[in-house]
Amino acid sequence: MRGLQGKSALVTGAGSGLGRGMALRLAEEGARVAILDVDREGAEDTRNAIERAGGEAVALELDITDYAACQAVVAAVKERFGGVDVLVNNAGWDHAENFVETDPELWRKIIDINLYGPLNMHHVTLPEMLAQGGGKIVNIASDAGRIGSSGEAVYSACKGGVIAFGKTVCRELARRGVIINTVCPGPSDTPLFAAFAGEGEAGEKLRASLARSIPLKRLGTADDIAGIVAFLASDDANFIVGQTISVSGGLTMHG
Ligand SMILES: NC(=O)c1ccc[n+]([C@@H]2O[C@H](COP(=O)([O-])OP(=O)(O)OC[C@H]3O[C@@H](n4cnc5c(N)ncnc54)[C@H](O)[C@@H]3O)[C@@H](O)[C@H]2O)c1
Predict the structure, then answer these.
(1) For residue 27, is it within any domain?
(2) Angle at 119 between CA 37 and CA 247, to 5 degrees
(3) Is 255 inside a domain boundary?
(4) Which DSSP letter does residue 40 get?
(5) Is the confidence at residue 199, as pLDDT, over 90?
(6) Residue 163: which domain range?
(7) How confident is the model at residue 230, as a pLDDT?
(8) 113 alpha carbon – ligand 1 mean position (Å)
(9) Which of 89, 116, 162, 190 to mutate to test the pocket of ligand 1 (most atoms within 8 A of CB)?
(10) Which pTM does this prediction carry?
(11) Whole-angstrom distance, CA of residue 110 vs CA of residue 152
(12) Residue 214 falls within a domain, yes or no?
């Protein structure tokens, strides 16, 4: 892919699952990667994996719900890598429960992480990108934000919000060089999915029935999602602007 060599790329939630795959792939394409995660150990594991493969990375502990901490981390990355070229808003969290049974405290936590987190990261990163003439943002939403997902009402609202937010900010800033696109993974085999599906036989049943309903007959993997993220961050995607792309093995086929 063109244009990623030497670029500074920030990936939130890169200490696990899909985000780790994205960080590894961006580093493989030559980017210098900042791994930002509330789980310091996970972030360090990802950094070590990148370094073992010959890439360059820094691991920084960050809770994306904390605006001041987001500001400090972006300043540290700018200092270390000399700029902020790519932001991947990947960190996310959910707890599956039918909406009528949920508590408003749970809504707040879900909204804080899945909506305020990306808002914070956009707001602290955009001034740097604008000052340097532009940048690429890839937001990780979910097909839950396009078609809904039982047990994930508030999470779906956040993911739908991230899709609309990204398009709007992109409309505001594309002419100044900021390009924003959104990737919607389908069900993918990660710790988050395992927590959603649940333990034991019930979890296995849900996993198997979802796999059956996917045309490719399997859940996604971190590798399945990493390629599109690196592509959208690269110069090969310079004319792809404000789009939402599902990567779901065909579970959802959008026109
Ligand atoms: N796995 C799926 O089936 C699936 C499907 C659709 C969308 N997604 C989305 O993909 C993204 C990655 O999910 P995953 O499945 O890899 O999950 P995961 O739980 O494996 O990884 C998420 C990472 O985000 C980090 N994180 C959580 N809260 C944070 C916070 N406040 N600040 C910083 N980091 C935080 C976690 O520590 C973890 O390392 C999420 O946005 C998720 O909503 C996942």
Answers:
(1) yes
(2) 70
(3) no
(4) H
(5) no
(6) 8-185+220-245
(7) 98
(8) 10
(9) 190
(10) 0.98
(11) 10
(12) no
